[in-house]
Design a protein that fits this description.
By secondary structure, this protein is of the alpha+beta class. It is 35% helix and 23% strand. It is built from three helices and five strands. The chain has helices at residues 3-17, 32-46, 57-69, and strands spanning 73-78, 91-98, 102-105, 108-111, 115-120. The protein has a five-stranded antiparallel β-sheet, covered by helices on one side. It is elongated, with a radius of gyration of 26 Å.
Amino acid sequence: MSDAEFSKMINNYFQNDYRERGKVKWNGYFLSDHTSALKREAQTKNSVPVKLPMMSLTACQNILRHASANYEFVTVQQNIEDTDGNLVPNVTGLVDGFSDLGVYINESYITFENIRAVVKEE
């Protein structure tokens, strides 16, 4: 068989007979912890936070200061709605620091004017 005939046979195979399996061939590479992490991420992205009662700015700042001093976890709900009218996801973590206009929680900056409620985690 000459090189030209072989090349023609190979091109014919890939153009007419070969069927790409797409994602199916890569599924074996996903470990169970990867799959569960992807499911968990999708769940958190699709969850809609329940609106907490509006708190005063002073009460929120007091909880944040206490949590910062005692290395406690807090959940901050912002009073920002997405295009569907749902609140943006809550931010949970340790208080990293303060500025004049807001607070840092897990490297996320939240301005005081956007805070709806703060809950100390147990």
